Amino acid sequence: MKNILKIILLLTMVNSFGQERYEVKLTSFNSKVSDFGAAYVPNGDLIFASERDTGTVAHRRHKINGELRPYLQLFTINKKADSTAIRRLKNAVNKKYHESTVAITNDGNTMYFTRNNYYKKIFKKDSNDINLLKLFKASKSNDGLWDNVVELPFNSDDYSVAHPTLNADNSRLYFASDMPGTLGISDIFYVTINGDDSYSKPVNMGDKINTVGSDTFPFISKEGDLYFSSDTHAGSGGLDVFVAKKEENYTVIHNLGAPINTVSDDFSLIFNEEDKTGYFSSNRENGIGDDDIYKFIELEPLVIVCDGVLSGIVKNNEGTIVSNADVVLTDATGKELNRVKSDTTGYYEFTIDCKKQTYTVVGTKLDFEKDIETIVATLEIKNPKVNLVLKAIDTGVTIGIDLAKELNLNPIYFDTNKSNIRLDAGIELQKVIAYMKEYPNVKVQVRAHTDSRGSNANNLKLSDRRAKSTAKYISEKGGIALDRISGKGFGETELLNRCANGVKCSKEEHQLNRRSEFIVISK
User: What is the DSSP letter of 64?
Assistant: First the structure.
């Protein structure tokens, strides 16, 4: 359910038995600061970025949220080792400023990595006095250390280039950038690596992948699927991890869902399709540091698409049917495809295309929190079911209350034997109108009462005319729908005191029985 907490329950993540597609656990080598961006090394190690204090680089610090911390540096750890086997990379990498997110070639001899705009001991800023990010390449020397760092030619002092990943045969380098041609805040690009170690011009991955927001931290799997993070594709909040499958020509975006994605930032995922394991980074709650690295196992593969009918039932959080709810179907970009209302049984349905699309269903109704559910229509699930649960919002309205007392109304007076609304009564009725506009689901019955003087029959007719006249006034003057306001006369059938027929009473005692009530009968 997605409400104020902006939580989406993604059906793409569960199989037919309701099991999550992934098993996630926190790795043991996280620190109390920021650790992220795990990358595979051909020898079985992992490389990742960390702010942990190693006492090196002259204890250089940067300020974040008012706290001085070490700059991000690159570390390596064997995947099977414990947290004590962490080693900081040396030699030509891990210099004065931030270094993070790497991609290493299949032969293990070339490493692409992200670094602040610092090269040959020169620290540069853009026209806005901001030090941006660049991609660099290092080569492994005979002694096994990284050396010969060079800047990639498509960098610039005016925009950032970061977060590299290589395809299976190392012929393409993918990265994130806000360079000219970017569709949003940051986009995913690639360059072709030529045989002479030159590079093609950067190519934008297009508007199926890239949005008006941040699309970043790409990873290309061995099978060619593109995993990346985005804060704009339909997700749980913050950065979510998505995959665009090569078999679908990267035209359909699938949200990996919980427990990979949360309302926090989830990013920098890598995945080994052979053993169905991978790593990602997140700043979710209950971690160790600001950003932490998590390991996951894929329990169920992502299943692709279908034609058919997407349908479901709308209920409230107590299991009661909710009719006349607005149900909206959108595509992966948030574009509205169709809109219907739930019927008297709470049922709704949409016809969907067999285009391997991700759909989002949004259920809303006044005085209820919205529910948002996302599902991928698949060939295996030709008629997906998406039930919506709308949580009732407590409006503070109580059925049965008398608005005359609740709003402290002055008595509604009528001229003798008349039912037309007087000017002084109209002023009081404006308070009822204002209340019904504030609570547009509330229904009210006007109940008019007389004292015992006069015949029972005449009193009943007079009170009924007055009640209906009052209801008509509220509807016409206040624009309140007739199905929300009604009137009924009770004559002298509900006296508040002893002053029945034949009983001598004072004027004040009779006055107590002459009254109009405004009873809330529905909310």
Answer: E
